[in-house]
Specification:
Helix content is 79%, strand content 1%. It is mostly helical and 470 residues long. The protein has a two-stranded parallel ribbon.
């Protein structure tokens, strides 16, 4: 088996032509990474990315249904908010388990089956919540749903990254992550229509059917990742056919390699996060993820309950969370564009300050009589907070080198999950004890912690001009 030399700017044109011909028309060895990055962005690749994004839309949709249902359940069952803290926490614990299990499942059985399994799990569990007789049953089903919800995001973003050429990859992955608040926004509009007519059981029945229908579509239309197939010689005939559908013709007897990814997968170890001057940045990023996800999930789970505690109608409370998610979609895209141009330090610090100030400014709004201003304020708060939450992943990718990038990002997200789980109990306790005042103070305080943490980080993404000079 012969190996073609890597293409580079300094290599003779003859070698580059030889490599291109091998990729296009056949040769004993093909670098799958080069074939994907240098080839066209074919329709099949775009379809795979859209299907992955739809998986995240229904993921965000189902994950936030409980927030809309809690005010109705409190009134119908005559129980306290604190009784639902374990329900919210169970879902978040399930998400943590799902995130941890998804990578192992995807590496063993394929990215395609990991996405499909995640969607079917949380779709079926969400439907089953509509039959739940008590809070304990809802908590158990939310744990199962959380496993599917937690597994969908990493596997769908992996699908997106592995089907998208390098020149479009950053935008495609960011757009996929933004589908979480987009799904939450659609859930708010959906809940506003379904809850008054069909109640909370109808909300979960209908909400669970959407991912089940998408799961059937994924079974039919979602292809397996070419990088996953390249790792398994017995699947190389499938990869040859897949590449042909992606407008990349290779010989039937070709062998595949993926040297770039194999180099990136060298295990350096957890302690590397604290070596070479990374200790300060690692601790600061952990703190930022912890506080930011506490703020985000306190809103996802408890914002409608807080608004109904202030005397607002359930429908109006739902519109509040919808505005929060809509702002999040806009904020994430704007902040990603600002970071690409100006670097990450000042856009992230500005959004952190905006998140804290917008939460505290809502304290001065008469919620019962100025609902329009209230909804606007919640949308503005969601814009700032979700802008920070979505783009901190890009900061992790810059701070940590290839050998420790996966470990660094996973550890930061683990601390974020702890903050999210804490929000399940803190949100209920604060709203019960202090109403909206303490709740909004808590959101602002959490974003202040994020601001201070990110200000401490040394290795922010540089501005575009500086990066080009370097």
């Amino acid at each position: 088996m012969s190996h073609l030399p890597p293409a580079s700017a300094t290599a003779p044109a003859q070698y580059n032509r030889t490599r291109d011909q091998a990729i296009q028309y056949g040769g004993s060895t093909v670098d799958i990474g080069h074939a994907l990055d240098q080839g066209p962005y074919a329709m099949l690749q775009r379809i795979a990315v859209v299907l992955a994004a739809l998986s995240i839309v229904v993921d965000g949709f189902d994950s936030q249904l409980i927030g809309f249902a809690i005010p109705v359940l409190i009134k119908e069952w005559g129980i306290t908010r604190n009784a639902f803290a374990p329900v919210v926490a169970a879902g978040l614990v399930g998400m943590g388990i799902g995130s941890a299990m998804a990578g192992l499942f995807a590496d063993r059985f394929g990215r395609r089956w990991a996405v499909i399994a995640s969607v079917f799990v949380f779709g079926a569990a969400t439907c089953a919540i509509g039959l739940a007789p008590n809070v304990a049953a809802i908590a158990a089903l939310r744990l199962i749903a959380g496993i599917g919800i937690g597994g969908a995001l990493p596997t769908s973003t992996t699908i997106t990254a592995e089907f998208t050429p390098a020149r479009y990859r950053t935008f495609a992955v960011t757009a996929t992550i933004v589908c979480v608040p987009l799904g939450g926004m659609l859930a708010g509009l959906f809940a506003g229509q379904v809850l008054p007519s069909y109640g909370w059981r109808g909300l979960f029945f209908a909400g669970g059917m959407l991912p089940l229908l998408l799961g059937v579509i994924l079974l039919v239309a979602l292809p397996e990742s070419p990088r996953f197939l390249a790792r398994r010689p017995r699947r190389w005939p499938d990869l040859v056919r897949l590449l042909a559908r992606m407008e990349r013709q290779v010989a039937d007897d070709v062998a595949f390699t993926d040297p770039r990814e194999q180099r990136a997968e060298k295990h350096v170890g957890f302690t590397a996060l604290f070596r070479d001057g990374r200790a300060r940045d690692t601790l600061a990023i952990w703190s930022a993820f912890f506080a930011c996800l506490l703020a985000v999930y306190a809103a996802f789970s408890w914002l409608p309950a807080m608004l109904t505690s202030q005397g607002l109608a359930v429908a109006t409370a739902g519109y509040g969370l919808t505005a929060y998610n809509l702002g999040g979609v806009i904020g994430a895209l704007l902040c990603a564009a600002a970071i690409a141009r100006y670097g990450s330090r000042w856009p992230l610090l500005f959004c952190c300050a905006g998140g804290a100030l917008s939460a505290w400014m809502i304290l001065g709004v008469d919620m019962a009589h100025r609902t329009g201003l209230l909804i606007f304020g919640l949308g503005l708060h969601g814009l700032f907070v979700n802008a920070v939450q979505s783009t901190m992943y890009a900061l992790c990718a810059y701070v940590y080198s290839t050998g420790v990038r996966a470990t660094g990002t996973a550890s930061a997200l683990a601390f974020g999950r702890i903050g999210a789980i804490l929000s399940a109990f803190a949100g209920a306790a604060v709203i019960t004890a202090t109403g909206g005042t303490g709740y909004l103070l808590m959101l602002g305080a959490a974003m202040t912690v994020v601001l201070l943490s990110l200000a401490v980080v040394r290795r922010h993404i540089p501005a575009k001009a500086n990066a080009e000079q370097n």
